[in-house]
């Protein structure tokens, strides 16, 4: 029960916050190239709206529906693994999976064009989309500079996906390193288990005739 609550809460927070920040920044700065970069830290970190019709780093531009289908398949696969095969008692893993699912849903929302944006010149130079056509692209707005080079723009859904994958890999690595649980095998008499008996000497009990006999659970 707690695992489901953590999963639903984290995925909902990521999805809502991602969609709200996209809506707010695009309403504030407009579409790509409509306004200059808004710098939080000059030359290092700021906001710049872009539209990505591809995957990470802009790979596969124009394959929007291919990536949308891949997102749906990934969504179903992750949910199936989480509810049927993942460790049941790990709340950190539930948090990681919630962040990943929220991120997938946030970008899938954009790829299906549910944000309602339409193309208008000169948002992306060289695009084959005509002005007025619906936009089937992910809204990105976070700009990070690495020296003189810009890192490909991203959004909060991307950040949640990366953090979720990292946390999931870490938790699964720890899970694999745990020693297997030792099954207790209880004696028929209920006195001691056999695993403990192998680790300690037999007890000596003195009888009334001063004879010693070993007491063992058979």
Textual characterization of the structure:
- The protein is of the alpha+beta class.
- The protein folds into two domains: 2-177, no CATH class; 191-218, no CATH class.
- The chain has five helices and six strands.
- It has helices at 2-29, 64-84, 91-111, 156-177, 194-198, and strands at 38-41, 45-52, 138-146, 149-154, 203-206, 212-215.
- The strands form two sheets. It has a four-stranded antiparallel β-sheet. A two-stranded antiparallel sheet has the order 5-6.
- The longest helix is centred in the N-terminal third of the chain and has 28 residues, at 2-29.
- The two termini are 42 Å apart.
- The model is unreliable at 182-192 and 194-218 (pLDDT under 50).
Can you summarize this structure?
This protein is an alpha+beta fold and 218 residues long. It is built from five helices and six strands, in the order H-E-E-H-H-E-E-H-H-E-E. Strands 1-2-3-4 form a four-stranded antiparallel beta sheet. Strands 5-6 form a two-stranded antiparallel ribbon.
Taken from the alpha-carbon principal axes, the silhouette is globular
Contiguous low-pLDDT stretches (5 residues minimum) are 182-192, 194-218
Distance between the termini: 42 Å
Instruction: Please tell me the total number of domains.
Output: 2
Spatial strand sequence of the major β-sheet: 1-2-3-4
Number of helices: 5
N-to-C SSE string, H for helix and E for strand: HEEHHEEHHEE
- Alpha carbon gyration radius: 29 Å
Helix and strand arrangement:
Layout: H1 2-29, E1 38-41, E2 45-52, H2 64-84, H3 91-111, E3 138-146, E4 149-154, H4 156-177, H5 194-198, E5 203-206, E6 212-215
Antiparallel strand pairs: 1-2, 2-3, 3-4, 5-6
Helix pairs in contact: 1-3, 2-3, 3-4
């Amino acid at each position: 029960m707690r695992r489901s609550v953590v999963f639903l809460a984290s995925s909902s927070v990521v999805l809502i916050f991602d969609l709200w920040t996209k809506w707010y920044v695009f309403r504030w700065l407009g579409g790509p190239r409509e306004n200059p970069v808004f710098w939080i830290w000059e030359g290092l970190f700021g906001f710049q709206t872009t539209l990505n019709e591809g995957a990470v780093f802009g790979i596969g531009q124009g394959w929007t529906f291919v990536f949308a289908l891949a997102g749906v398949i990934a969504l179903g696969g992750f949910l199936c693994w989480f509810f049927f095969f993942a460790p049941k008692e790990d709340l950190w893993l539930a948090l990681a999976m919630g962040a990943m699912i929220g991120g997938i849903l946030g970008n899938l929302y954009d790829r299906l064009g549910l944000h309602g944006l339409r193309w208008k010149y000169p948002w992306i130079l060289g695009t084959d989309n005509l002005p007025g056509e619906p936009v089937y692209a992910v809204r990105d707005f976070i700009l990070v500079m690495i020296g003189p080079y810009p890192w490909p723009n991203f959004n909060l859904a991307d950040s949640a996906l990366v953090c979720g994958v990292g946390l999931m890999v870490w938790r699964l690595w720890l899970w694999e390193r745990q020693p297997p649980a030792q099954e207790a095998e209880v004696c028929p008499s209920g006195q001691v288990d056999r695993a403990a008996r192998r680790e300690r000497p037999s007890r000596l009990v003195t009888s009334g005739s001063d004879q010693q006999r070993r007491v063992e659970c058979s």
